[in-house]
């Protein structure tokens, strides 16, 4: 009888542990699923940059301003691709019909924010989105 009681307690403990573990992991699972969806949606603009400039690194070199002044056309191109992808994601998720931005509109946004500030944020976003193996799986 003692053995049956103990095995019942062990079984209940295992079930409770499993439930608690699943509950604790749920927020991480949801976050990972959202990130996977976002990552797959952002892939097209990274591909557009790679198609036009050969690689993300090559695009980064013409926009970083280390060796020379940043290539404004490359900066505007990168921003336009990324902002329009964000607009497209928002349209899909919320059923809105926002129009994509033109290069001229993006140029005005960059002017307003400031070239250096905009470049730093853009490059950080590109690096963060391409460094993780999980993000590029």
Structure commentary:
The chain is an all-alpha fold. It has one domain. The termini are far apart.
How is the secondary structure organized here?
Layout lengths: L1 H52 L2 H8 L8 H23 L8 H11 L1 H17 L6
Helix pairs in contact: 1-3, 3-4
- What Rg is obtained from the alpha carbons, in whole angstroms? 23 Å
Q: Alpha-carbon distance between the termini?
A: 53 Å
Task: Give a short account of the largest sheet.
Answer: none
Strand content is: under 5%
| Discrete helix count | 5
Helix residue percentage: over 70%
Oligomer: single chain
The count of β-strands is: 0
Approximate shape = elongated
* Chain-averaged pLDDT: 78
* Domain count: 1
Please describe the structure with a list of short key phrases separated by commas or semicolons.
137 residues; 5 helices
Please provide a brief summary of the model.
Helices cover 81% and strands 0% of the residues. It has helices spanning 2-53, 56-63, 72-94, 103-113, 115-131.
């Amino acid at each position: 009888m003692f053995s049956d009681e103990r095995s019942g307690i062990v079984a209940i403990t295992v079930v409770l542990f499993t439930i608690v573990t699943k509950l604790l992991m749920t927020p991480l699972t949801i976050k990972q699923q959202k990130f996977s969806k976002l990552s797959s949606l952002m892939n097209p603009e990274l591909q557009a940059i790679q198609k036009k400039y050969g690689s993300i690194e090559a695009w980064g070199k013409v926009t970083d301003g280390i060796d020379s002044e940043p290539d404004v056309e490359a900066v505007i191109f990168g921003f336009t691709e990324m902002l329009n992808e964000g607009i497209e994601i928002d349209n899909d998720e919320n059923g809105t019909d926002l129009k994509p931005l033109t290069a001229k509109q993006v140029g005005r946004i960059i002017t307003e924010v400031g070239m250096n500030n905009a470049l730093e944020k853009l490059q950080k976003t590109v690096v963060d989105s391409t460094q993780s193996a999980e993000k590029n799986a």
